[in-house]
Amino acid sequence: MVLHSPAAVVPGTAPGSGTETTRRRTPGTGTIRRDRGLLWHPYAPLDGPAPFAVEAAGGVRLQLRAADGERFDVVDAMSSWWSMIHGYRNPVLDEALRHQSERFSHVMFGGLTHEPAVRLAEQLVRLAPQPLEHVFLADSGSVSVEVALKLAVQYQAATGRPERQRFLALRGGYHGDTFAAMSVCDPVDGMHSAFPGLVAQQEFLPRPPAARLDNDGELVADAAAVAGWIAALKETVARQAGGLAAIIVEPVLQGAGGMFAYAPECLRAARRVADEHGLLLVFDEIATGFGRTGRLFAAEWAGVSPDIMCVGKALTGGYLTLAAVLCSAEVASAVTNSEFRALLHGPTFMGNPLACAVASASLDLLEANGWRQQVGGVERGLAASLAPAAALGSVREVRVLGAVGVVQLDRPVDIPALTRAALDRSVWVRPFRDLVYTMPPYVSSAADVAAIGAGITGAIAEVHG
């Protein structure tokens, strides 16, 4: 629904309440005007396209205002970059935040502990693949990857192999924007060229063979292609093992590197090869964890466990920034018995009580709401509603995995035009490269998912044909 009147009442206000008059005096266009040239937005220049101002949010919907004053009531097809799985203004998460704020909002984690952190760690260990038994609470996904890489290097040094300081990663991968995390992102599509001499040189394998869901709901790929990739894995590790600390991958689904699903057998092979050569296996489940791919953790598609695992994004249900690094007892024991005895990292906001309390409530809600049924419903809805896009001339491929739907074009997306066309169809999307994709909140209704699919398909048809 598009609200064309700049003076329309913001949802949640009532005529004559006083709030309505205040909102009219300070419209969203003022926020956008003040933003321009002041705030940098992700991967955007200061003088780039004007952002939309968010005036309210609830459930799966956002109320937006454009720079010209036009207002939109839209379904958020992005879950605020894949994190807001339970929707906005969720009463359970609101209450968890309020309750903890009435006790204390933050304390340092050095020398102190508190119930929210302990309870969250217990939940994570219970839910995570065995044998992950120990938890480091970080303050963002990128930081959790930095910690994981540090941990792998410390482990190798503690076990008598201090020369093992590099990593084997995948082409097409994305692990964050800080320096160590950047170094294991795709070396071409990542940001290596912007920081020559500063980003560490790592080893890279080709992107694994693409996989698709079969009629039994399993991810399958071309057997010959998988065999060829595994051969390349074995050869690379045999040649480079003396300098490698770990293999790091996004299991089964590469997110920001292309929304690309690949064969689970590649993970099983990585586990075997890592064990054979004394490498650790690191799974970055920041985007894939907590049910997004149809399994609680994407590692379950392959039936293997990593030595170290990073989680984030949906961890707090999108409310606050928080991530975690989990590791096995073997890894933790080696570091504990090493020269330094500690994992050498300690953010100021490590174990923030507000974030931990909300994350704990989010994990409770995940189970209480039946995430498997929720994600299954979203998957079926996306498969049905995005299917018509495959007939468009500009569309190369449509693919769906869990609560992830992707329409890949045969050309780069005209992002401003397609964003606007989707808004006109009451859907908020944020395309990139040649991809128009959606990761809806798990609480999206069948009608919400159908609207997302129809909005994406219609917007592509309008802009790209």
TrEMBL record:
* Residues involved in pyridoxal 5'-phosphate binding: 141-142, 284, 347-348
What cofactor(s) does the depicted protein rely on? pyridoxal 5'-phosphate
Q: Which positions does the record annotate as the modified residue N6-(pyridoxal phosphate)lysine?
A: 313
Q: Which CDD domains match?
A: OAT_like
Q: Which Gene3D superfamilies does UniProt cross-reference here?
A: Aspartate Aminotransferase, domain 1, Type I PLP-dependent aspartate aminotransferase-like (Major domain)
Checking Pfam families in the record gives: Aminotran_3 (PF00202)
User: Which protein family is named in the record?
Assistant: Belongs to the class-III pyridoxal-phosphate-dependent aminotransferase family. BioA subfamily.
- Name of the protein described by the UniProt record: Adenosylmethionine-8-amino-7-oxononanoate aminotransferase
Q: Please tell me the species this chain comes from.
A: Arthrobacter mangrovi
